[in-house]
Amino acid sequence: MSEAATREVDTEARELLETVVRTPSVSRNESEAAQRLVEFFEAHDREVWIDDVGNVRAPADDGVLLTSHIDTVPGDIPVRVEESSEGDVLWGRGSVDAKGPLCAMAVTAVRTGASFAGVVMEEVDSTGGRHLVEDRDAAPDAVVNGEPSGWEGITLGYRGLLGGTYVATSESGHSSRPENNAIQDAMDWWSAVEDEFAKDEWHPVFERVTCKPVDFDGGISADGLSVEATMQVQLRVPPEYATDEIREIADGYLANGTVNWDDWVEPVMESPRTSVARAFRAAIRDHGGEPHLLRKTGTSDMNIYAQAWDCPMVTYGPGDSDLDHAPNEHLHLTEYDRSVAVLEDVTERLL
């Protein structure tokens, strides 16, 4: 076990985390936080640069690639460290999602010699993760992706995502007419899609296709001659499906209008018996924890990496994922210290 893993308080790791959390990095504005990471790697004599899309790249031993995202969602949460009965707590936007995991990865990378990438735009469209897989010459031997799982949790699965925009137009007419207008066509199509994938409340959410309209605009056109409807929709896709299958099913219910499917991320479900998963279970137990395996109902950059790279991977990091994007986002620093220690042990085992 490394010296850092046995320390009660990991001062270096905490200082990096507080610095990065104090540096705002809402999606599309990550450059200042990226520079803080560059300075950290340079201080440890590591090769590091910022690539064409804004990712922080610090390649080294590709036996393990440690990666997480730099960007956060908007939200002004005053950054502060407060004492509690369980130790110090860091408050601030991104402390959980995902600067805690990000900084834990960075610290582990400099201490073990593993490769590191801090990527941008995960909260929007995974621009950074997509560029990373396109820009690398080869897959790493293993990947640890950083997202909050709790220091004892190991995330093996994420649902996929299919997103698109429905558009329909109909002739304008008096509201007393019985024929559907474009707004009704949009409502009928979406109701049919929801009915197709409906499950009872006992069915695990991870195994469902869940349907969510995220924006709607409809009414009489500017020239008064037609009724228009535009609806943005998202469907979360469990591993038993591919996004193409869900698209074909949804398109089959179109009576009027069209859908431009412009966002698709395939689901991922990793085996608990890979070398990476085994290393995490052993390291968590060695640090007094009880490992548990997780499946997340959202998506992450791990979906992107799993589609591109045929190597074992998991997602791991400190923090309660229920606090993702929340107005009370905060991270217990003792948990953060434990996660750094676990990551060091895992990385040393794999390297």
Nutshell version of this structure?
This protein has helices spanning 3-6, 11-21, 31-43, 95-112, 127-135, 182-196, 243-251, 275-286, 301-308, 333-350; strands at 49-50, 56-58, 61-69, 80-82, 89-91, 114-119, 143-146, 153-158, 160-171, 210-220, 226-237, 258-265, 268-269, 292-296, 313-316, 330-332.
Polypeptide structure, described:
The strands form 4 sheets. The chain has a 6-stranded mixed β-sheet with strand order 1-2-6-3-7-15, sandwiched between helices. A 4-stranded antiparallel β-sheet has the order 10-11-9-12, covered by helices on one side. The two termini are 14 Å apart. By secondary structure, it is α/β, with parallel strands linked by helices.
What is Rg?
A: 23 Å
Which regions are unreliable across 5 or more consecutive residues at pLDDT < 50? 1-7
Number-wise, the strands total 16
Distance between the termini: 14 Å
Please count the helical segments.
10
Q: What share of the residues does DSSP label as strand, in percent?
A: 25-35%
User: Structural class from helices and strands?
Assistant: alpha/beta
Order of helices and strands: HHHEEEEEHEHEEEHEEHEEHEHEEH
Strand order of the largest sheet: 1-2-6-3-7-15
Describe the biggest sheet?
Answer: 6 strands, mixed
Helix content class? 25-40%
Molecular shape: elongated
